[in-house]
Each structure stands twice: as C-alpha cells, then as structure tokens.
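Hi D.,

Good news: the full-assembly prediction came through. Inputs first.
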Amino acid sequence: MASHLENLLLPHGRTALCKSVLPALLDCIADIAESLHQSQHVSLAGGTNAFGDGQLNVDISAENLLRAALAECPSVETASSEEDPVERPARDSQAEGGVSATSEKYTVAFDPLDGSSIIAPNWTVGTIIGIWDGGSAIHQRPSEKQIAAILGVYGPRTTAIVALRVPGGEPCCLEIGIGKSGAHEFLRSDMRFADPPFKTRYFAPANLRAAAESEAYMRLITHYVEKKYTLRYSGGLVPDLVHALVKGHGVYISPVTSVSEAKLRRLYELFPVALVVECAGGKAINPVDGEDILTRPLENCDETAGLICGTAEEVGIAKKALLGSHP
Amino acid sequence: MASHLENLLLPHGRTALCKSVLPALLDCIADIAESLHQSQHVSLAGGTNAFGDGQLNVDISAENLLRAALAECPSVETASSEEDPVERPARDSQAEGGVSATSEKYTVAFDPLDGSSIIAPNWTVGTIIGIWDGGSAIHQRPSEKQIAAILGVYGPRTTAIVALRVPGGEPCCLEIGIGKSGAHEFLRSDMRFADPPFKTRYFAPANLRAAAESEAYMRLITHYVEKKYTLRYSGGLVPDLVHALVKGHGVYISPVTSVSEAKLRRLYELFPVALVVECAGGKAINPVDGEDILTRPLENCDETAGLICGTAEEVGIAKKALLGSHP
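Then the structure:
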C-alpha cells in the first residue's frame, strides 16, 4: 500500500504527509476500532462537549488516541476536534519531535467518533478527519487548503476512505482495508460515483421530522418515494456517506428549516465529507444558498450548516426542490 | 455468565440447551464476527440460494461455521438454513456424538448472515437463529415449540440478543457482549420495550417504495413525519430490530402490497425475530391479517410474509393504518 501512496504524494513534495501523517492516522483508526471492539459497556462519561452533546467513554478514548497520534507527527503543527473546538499546538512545545524536520506544516481537524446516538445499538460509526496546509484552518479557503480527508469506518470490518487533493496532483478517493499493526491494504484506488443511468437510486433524509414544517422537503421526500428510490438512513454521517460511495449512487440531505437549525459542524464534519464527495466526482452544497460547502472560509471552529451531498445529478434535483428559483 | 443461564434453564430440564447449544452458538457468533473482520474483500461466491439471492463469500463462511457448530451439539437433531432451506439431520449419523445423551432434542433454523445488501458498505449485519423443541419446525405451533432465539450483531462490537421462552420458565430477553474464546458477558439481563410516555419515537419503514402504490402505507409514513418520529432504517432486519430494543422504543414495518410481495422468510427471519420481540414485551404481527407472527404453523421451510413489530402501542397504530377496519 505504501508504494501507491508514494506515487500519489511524493512527486508533489508531500513526504511527511505520505510517510508520517497518513500512516499515523490509519494506524490510529485501527486502534480506535480495537478500543470500540473492547468497549461492551458504552456509557456517558459525564461531560458535554462544546456543541452540547453528552460525551461517551468511547468518544473520549477516540479523542485521546487521535491526539496522541498527532503529537507524534512533527509536521502536524495544529490540531482541533469536535470535542475541544479550539485550534491548539498539536504537542507540548518542549516535547521531543516538536520541531518539524520538513517544510510541510499541517493543521488537523477531526471528529473522533461521529454517530453517538447509534453507538449503543451497535451500528456502524465513524471518525472524520480533515488535513489542512499551514498552521490554521481559520480564514483559509477550504477548497484549496484542505488537501486531504479521512473517514474511518467501524463496522463488521474496519475500513477507511482517504481523499487526496494536493496542489499539482489529481484528486483521488481511495478505500482502504484497515488491519492490525499497520497491515492495511488498498481495496479500491479510484472510488467514484457512477454515471447515469442508475440501476438503483438511494436516498438518506436526515432530520425527516423537518418535513413536517417544510413543504419543500416533504415534496422532495414524496418525489423519492414515487420514483422508487431505496431508503438507507442510519443517522450516522460516515456510514450514510460511505453507503453512497460504495454503491456508487446516493444523496444525503440534512436540511435547514424555520424550526430545524443547521446541525453539522463545518470544520469537523462538512469540510472533510465534502472533500471526499468531490474527490469521488460528486457534489456537496449548502441547502440554504446552494453554495459549494468548500467555498466559504471558516470564521470560527464551531460554525454549523446543513448539507446536500452525493451524486451530482441528485444534488441538483434536491437543490432545485429545496431552493426553487433561488440561486 | 454461565451461572445466570443455569438459573434460567436448569430448573426447567434444559441442561443441553444451557451447557451445549447456547454456548456453541454464542462461540460461533464470535467466530463469524472474526471471519467478517478478516474479510476485506466481500464478493459474490457465484451461486444463488433458494430465495434467489446472490451468495457472498461471507454468507457461505457463516453458513459453514454454524453447520459445524451444530454438528458438535448432540441434542441438535435437525438443522436448516436460509441458504439451504430443507430440514436435514444436523450431522452424519455415523459421526461421533451422533447419539443424544439427553432427553432434549432440538431443531435449529438459521439465517447465517442477514443483510447482504449492506455488507459491502460495512454497515452492521446479523445472524438470526431459532431453536425449536423436537425434530422438526414444520407443522409445529411456533408460539409453543420455538423456545429460544438468538440474534448475532456484527458492528463496531459483537453482541448477541438471546430470547428464552421455555415451558415452565418466565420469558426473558438478554443482551450479551461477545468476546473471543468464550469470554462472553451479560450486558443486560432484562431487555424490555419501554412503557409510554416515550421521549423519542423511532420508525423503520422497509420497502418504502411500496408507499407509491399503497395509500395506507403512505398515510402511515406521513403520520410518523408529522408526529416527529425519528427515522432509523438500515435495511438490515437485525440492526433495525436491535436499535428498537436498545432504545426501548421502535416500530419496524415490512408491508405487503399489490405490487410488493412478502419478503421475509417465516422460519429463518420472522419467527426468531418475533420471539425476541415478544420476550421483550413487544408485538410482532402479519401486516396482511393482523395475526401474531407466531400463531400459524409452517407448511414449508421457504414461506415468506410481511412484518409489523416493535413497541406494542406502535404496532397497534400501524396495524390500524394498514388494515383499517379489517380484523
């Protein structure tokens, strides 16, 4: 597997990303999977994070594993997470390895364990990671500066989706089988949404309750039912997106309505997911104004928004349904 | 864990069930989990089963593991599975261990790996097992003769739901954490659907496409949206049911309409699931006539039907919506 990543990254001056950051994060995903596998007793750890979510013991364990992994990567200067949404140095400046030996300098933003509500019933959950060029993600153009994203997928197997869009290189989306102790293998080196015609169309309607107040959302749902789309909605952003990627088709909608506010964290959820979707040939837009998720820079780490993403054609249909004649 | 099972089963003359059949099946669930964890390359094995489903390599592996486990249990006389839906002796009559040393005699019917369509995207899948008194499940009253059911749940962790309803004993539903090499532990010894009022109501609408032709099904879906139920629908019967059990509330609907035929196998899916639901205080009925799933005996191993199951109150609401003034 290493040589394939080397071919993709070394010609573009990404030695540390290739040989340090990505391997450390993939190994960390293996460690989080093992930690989840051992955690038969899922419990609230007692705290709430900055977004008001109750923290589970497994959230905290995943957070700690990722922080420790990043501290070992000299090129990672800054880190922040959904559990502690403030950009901070990735390690104690006194610690060994604190000085980067390369010209590469990265900021990593992550949601250590996405899908808290479905951990207790033992459904597939995930980790979401975005990797940015430079020492901060704030006020940077996401479409240029976020150069890689990783989704860790914890189900019957452990897999990861890696999206790469480094300057000078072709965007690509990879599926990787995660083994123990660094024994990872490429499953697919070019994950792409399929072109029409589609054998089966899938839809994942988040916050379906909002359709009670939004005629436009209700009409869109009715459209999917009448056109015989197949429903798959786990309520976990990672498994819902990975379903669409693996099937080659799908649309995920997290609407924003008068009574239902934007739920997804831009930095920790939307940006990495949007990079994966774009690298696989799909679209990811804001349901409020139709703008690409990766266009508008971040002002603060705790911003939220809605999402329509997936197969480009389907995103267009959903956008038209929700925005009508707006942009 | 063993002593808790002993308290539940030994007073009712179920030594072999307690000390041989259940431990063998729980260990087998651990083995299937390990096999799935190692199977990064999910592929069609080339065949189709009697129900016309394409067989995956992981289906066949799970089938073989279960057959081998049952062959080691002297009290299991007969076995059949969704992959080979014919009742046959559980072992070669010449083989060692072929003579039961106890008066207990069981028939085991199983779906080795339910949820084929969601294995590739790495979503949680499951094993479904029903255990019957006597040498056959055919022409027997399911409500009396199916005395135990097990759901194996393969997600970030491995868990099992065990329902027991042996004559003379109290019905009970247990959640078990599956570890390696027989290291299992009770997570909950009395899994029950909650009583009203419900904080959050969940619904899982299978075959939602059918709502395009069924006004009654569409009205029921609209009811859930308007009443702000939370949607969770993975498309896997085991994870969908386990979600409801763990949350303490939920309703699962697999309708039968003019253009959408009955999809679920009575022997391999509906009967074990119905026993689990009833032992947890819920209801499981046929959406066509409202009859309890466990009432009507089986004529053939390959019979299918629809399903409404979950929280008793919710099953009543769905039944009324789909059947109207019928029975």
